[in-house]
Amino acid sequence: MAFGRFPRPKEASPFSDINVTPMVDVMLVLLVIFILTAPLLTSAIRMDLPQSQAAQAGQAPESISLSLNAQGELFVNDKAVDEATLLARLQDIASRRPDTEVQLRADQTLAYGRVLQVMGTAQQAGLSRIGFVATTTEPGSGSGSGLSSGPMPPAAQGLVPRP
Questions:
Q1: Over the stretch 26-36, which tens digit does the pLDDT of each residue have?
Q2: Which residues span the domain enclosing 90?
Q3: Cβ atoms of 90 and 127 closer than 8 Å
Q4: Which of 13, 43, 69, 90 has the greatest count of CB atoms below 10 A from its CB?
């Protein structure tokens, strides 16, 4: 017999699950704060900037096309030029705009030394910005280097009769 004792309930076992509700509440508050402040950060300062006639920073400099076909003939902006007048023509261009970019197009069968000679002439004339023009080939087309010579102007290809 139990002599007046009431039966005791079993003690509750510890609760071992993580309560994610406070974490979700904090994340939602942070999300609302970021949504409200993001538009303010993009245009926080309003200014009236001065106007200028100078070239914009993003404008590309003037460029000329200097082409060499497989026979070694020279073309400046699709017009045939001989070796003797090339330096004078490039110096004239450099005196007007020294930041002019030379876009060098050379046939891939041309000797490397000939290309370097033309580059040296351009640098001697005062044009130091020289870029090589090339076309990319499609992947798997069989070309090992991935590059071929750039598109030659019609006069450089011999397709257009020269005056």
A1: 999 999 999 98
A2: 63-157
A3: yes
A4: 90
Q: What is the CATH number of the domain that holds 74?
A: 3.30.420.270
Residues 135 and 137: their CA atoms lie apart, in Å, by: 7
Task: List, in sequence order, every residue forming a beta bridge with 75; answer none if it has no partner.
Answer: 67, 80
Global confidence as pTM: 0.49
Residue 46 in any domain: the answer is no
Q: Does any domain span residue 162?
A: no
User: Computed over its alpha carbons, how large is the radius of gyration of the chain?
Assistant: 36
Contact of 156 with 67, CB cutoff 8 Å: yes
Total domains present in the chain? 1
Q: How far is residue 67's CA from residue 74's CA, in Å, rounded to a whole number?
A: 6
Q: Which residue is it, tokens 């994610």? A: 20
Check the CA dihedral 71-76-82-83 and report its sign: negative
Answer whether residue 143 is part of any domain.
yes
Report how far residue 86's alpha carbon sits from residue 74's, in angstroms, rounded to the nearest whole number: 8
**Which residue, 117, 91, 88, 89, is CA-closest to 104?**
117
Residues 99-152 have pLDDT tens digits of: 889 888 888 888 888 888 989 998 888 888 888 887 766 665 554 444 444 555
Determine contact, residues 80/105, Cβ cutoff 8 Å. Answer: no
